[in-house]
Amino acid sequence: DGPAQRPVRHLDVALHPTNDLVLSGYYPFDVSPDGKRIVFSAISHANDTGTLIANPIVLARIDSRDLYIADLETGDHRKLSGTEGGATPFCSHAGEWVGFVAGSELRRISVEGGSPLKVSDFHTARHGFLTGAVWTPDDRILFSSYYESALFQVSISGGTVKPLTVPTEGQQHK
């Protein structure tokens, strides 16, 4: 019979009830592994300086981004304090943490809130923006970036970013 198929879900998510939010970043959201929450990076126009953002990939005010979590069952949503400038969020394998990039760091924060923890340096001048990331069950973050052709890995407890793959000339591992 094969593996059990998960049902397809269609989601209509109201990002915020009082402010207009614009999703921001190359991949601006992730759904928790249990399918109960969505975490997203957004710019609040209520706090913006009036800069028109025609394309959310082209970020006019990087410092005005924040991460938000929406409960897909209740519709409740909230800003994750301490995630100012946060982009490209991704959920941990158990859904208890969110990884993201802010400033020149790869960080993580509990879905319950609190202070974000630095995982590693992430210099956009070297890497470009984060184009994909996954938090593995053995607590590593595997990621790709715009300027680099390899895949990288780093422990969530911190440390040095190391190549996971070594592409040959002309190859891209994304």
Question: Which key phrases capture this entry?
Answer:
single chain; 174 residues; mainly beta; 5-stranded antiparallel β-sheet; 4-stranded antiparallel β-sheet; 1 helix; 37% strand; globular
Summarize the SSE layout with pairings.
Elements (H helix, E strand, L loop, with lengths): L20 E3 L5 E3 L5 E8 L20 E7 L5 E3 L7 E5 L5 E6 L2 E6 L6 E5 L2 H4 L2 E6 L4 E6 L6 E4 L6 E2 L11
Antiparallel strand pairs: 1-3, 2-3, 3-4, 4-5, 6-7, 7-8, 8-9, 10-11, 11-12, 12-13
Summarize the structure.
By secondary structure, this protein is an all-beta fold.
Along the chain, the helix and strand elements come as: EEEEEEEEEHEEEE
Number of strands: 13
Largest sheet: 5 strands, antiparallel
Percent strand equals: 35-45%
Q: Average pLDDT, to the nearest integer?
A: 78
Note the overall shape: globular
Indicate the low-confidence ranges by residue numbers. 47-60
Helix content: under 10%
Describe this structure in words.
The chain contains 1 helix and 13 strands; from the N terminus they run E-E-E-E-E-E-E-E-E-H-E-E-E-E. The strands form 3 sheets. Strands 1, 2, 3, 4 and 5 form a 5-stranded antiparallel sheet that branches. Helices cover 2% and strands 37% of the residues. About 8% of the residues have low confidence. By secondary structure, it is mostly beta strands.
